[in-house]
From TrEMBL:
<dbReference type="GO" id="GO:0005737">
    <property type="term" value="C:cytoplasm"/>
</dbReference>
<dbReference type="InterPro" id="IPR027409">
    <property type="entry name" value="GroEL-like_apical_dom_sf"/>
</dbReference>
<keyword id="KW-0963">Cytoplasm</keyword>
<dbReference type="InterPro" id="IPR002423">
    <property type="entry name" value="Cpn60/GroEL/TCP-1"/>
</dbReference>
<dbReference type="GO" id="GO:0005524">
    <property type="term" value="F:ATP binding"/>
</dbReference>
<keyword id="KW-0067">ATP-binding</keyword>
<dbReference type="GO" id="GO:0140662">
    <property type="term" value="F:ATP-dependent protein folding chaperone"/>
</dbReference>
<comment type="similarity">
    <text>Belongs to the TCP-1 chaperonin family.</text>
</comment>
<protein>
    <recommendedName>
        <fullName>CCT-eta</fullName>
    </recommendedName>
</protein>
<dbReference type="InterPro" id="IPR017998">
    <property type="entry name" value="Chaperone_TCP-1"/>
</dbReference>
<keyword id="KW-0547">Nucleotide-binding</keyword>
<keyword id="KW-0143">Chaperone</keyword>
<dbReference type="Pfam" id="PF00118">
    <property type="entry name" value="Cpn60_TCP1"/>
</dbReference>
């Protein structure tokens, strides 16, 4: 009962974590929020891909191009001024560590419903690209923090400008009691 609380804003359970999340900051005052619907990770090809090279040195330029693309996306997120980056799709190990090194919190695979709730409460707009991010699409709140409640961790956005959103976190007994009736017939 003592762990239950009311948030003037949005709260949701922490999403899947990648390597590096431990080093991320867990609390910000008046952060800007960047809400995305894109992946921020290096992906291996799902289909067979074939590239014919006439010179083995060309291979490195292809690998470098892939790395440059992801680093360009991550750099644009940081340059937006956002201290919290949320995405409906995956944010991988590389991005998580990149953000942690720059004092930015990130969470990937955020449920679509939760992302929309954060957008509505914070005044942010969900982006499908990291190109040309302007201040008007960034959300905000008075306090963002990641908080442990029992065995769960929650991302808490309080003091949201819309003022119409509240979340109640109820912590109850975790043990379930099963009973059976025995018949002596």
């Amino acid at each position: 009962m003592r762990d239950s609380f009311l948030v003037n804003g949005v709260t949701f359970k922490k999403t899947f974590s990648y390597v590096g999340f431990e080093q991320q900051p867990k609390k910000f005052l008046n952060p800007k929020l960047l809400l995305l619907n894109i992946e921020l990770e290096l992906k291996s090809e799902k289909e067979n891909a074939e590239i014919r090279l006439s010179d083995p040195s060309q291979y490195q330029s292809i690998v470098d191009a892939e790395w440059n693309i992801i680093y360009d996306k991550l750099d644009k997120c940081v340059k937006s001024g956002a201290k919290v980056v949320l995405s409906r799709l995956a944010i991988g190990d590389l991005a998580t560590q990149y953000f942690a090194d720059r004092d930015v919190f990130c969470a990937g695979r955020v449920a679509e419903e939760d992302l929309h709730r954060v957008a509505a409460a914070s005044g942010g707009t969900i982006q499908t690209s990291v190109n040309n991010i302007i201040d008007e699409v960034l959300g905000t709140c008075e306090v963002f923090e990641e908080k442990q409640v029992g065995n769960e961790r929650f991302n808490i956005f309080s003091g949201c400008p819309s003022g119409r959103t509240a979340t109640i976190v109820l912590r109850g007994e975790v043990d379930q009691v099963w009973s059976r009736r025995r018949s002596n017939r």
